[in-house]
Write a structure and sequence with these properties.
The structure is a homodimer of 194-residue chains. The first copy, chain A, is built from ten helices and no strands. Chain A is mainly alpha-helical and 194 residues long. Chain A is globular, with a radius of gyration of 19 Å. The interface between A and B is large, with 50 and 50 residues. The structure holds a DNA duplex (26 and 26 nucleotides).
Chain lengths: 194, 194
Amino acid sequence: MKVSKAQVQENRARIVAMAAMLFRERGYDGVGVAELMAAAGLTHGGFYKHFKSKADLMAEAAAAGLEQSAVNTADLDVIAFVNQYLSRQHRDAPGEGCTMAALSGDAARQPDSIKAVFAEGIERQLAVLGANQAVDADANKQARALIIETMAQAVGAIVLSRACPDDSPLADEILAVCRARILGQYEREPEVKP
Amino acid sequence: MKVSKAQVQENRARIVAMAAMLFRERGYDGVGVAELMAAAGLTHGGFYKHFKSKADLMAEAAAAGLEQSAVNTADLDVIAFVNQYLSRQHRDAPGEGCTMAALSGDAARQPDSIKAVFAEGIERQLAVLGANQAVDADANKQARALIIETMAQAVGAIVLSRACPDDSPLADEILAVCRARILGQYEREPEVKP
DNA sequence: ATTATCTATAGATCTATAGATAATGC
DNA sequence: ATTATCTATAGATCTATAGATAATGC
């Protein structure tokens, strides 16, 4: 029943990847260890050779999800990012979407060890979107403020839109309004290029 | 052991009020019926004479929390609202704060019956903040868009700030930046008065 | 020999129900 | 007579551990 070291590593990665998806879809309390391990093709007893506890996995899955978002958006400019982020596709597929939007509410009730992972993930995403890339300190401060505002509005729009019933006109209106207004801001205040 | 009709009504209201607070603090899955009833000074068996199920209470507690926010902010203009909403006090007291910010993430995973309560609560809050109060249809549309953008950014800022560790500089920065930028927008685009 | 995985289970917790009780309200 | 509340419990589920197993890797 033992498996190769490569297989062990692959199994562990699959558990983390499944957790990152299932937690985003159903929340930290919405997915049990047994179900998670079954989704990864294993039995639940083996979980504790990979992780000390479910809380440990939560931190690792959050880091994986946040890292994935940063990598996926690394080659987008802010306008492309906003168009993708504030889309119905993103709203309706939380399992593959932004970890901040899907799990920040849950993270707020977790210990600082998990919140620290989120803070790092937020900071990373701000960097990817072009904060701190301006020529001088003052321009940097302004660029960073603009990116923070954009992320907050984008996250808020997705969170509120997802809280509405599936066919609610308000759900779509929130996305459309925020997308238009953010994009309008980047026309007036063009993105800072390095 | 039976109690008067007035007492029954009072007990029920206390259960709903405690639920509205505890759910905001710890999430729908974070509070059990037994603990909730104990917090209301009752034993858990009696719960089911008041509510058909925990899910029924969740809908009613959400409605109560959303209603409370609307009433509390009814006499504030948008600027006073934003100053209060994007404060450390609000961020650090979710149990008495905005239900949208505290529970939208949980609501997204609940059935449409609960999401419908949230959609109504959002719509109500938009109305309180002055959407639909302009003189003509076009001005109304613009005013509504501005309020939606403001709510999304405010909710997103609180949600992200709460996901950061308690002493995180980023948590405070998100609040300060979004507060300043929203207020700046209302200077440039003054609030629509009826 | 080591150890990742499996089966089985302990112990806690959670929602919901059953039946008894006693004060209200017709 | 009705019924809100209480005590007790059923049945499900969840995290974590114990012990057996069998293939890897020294």
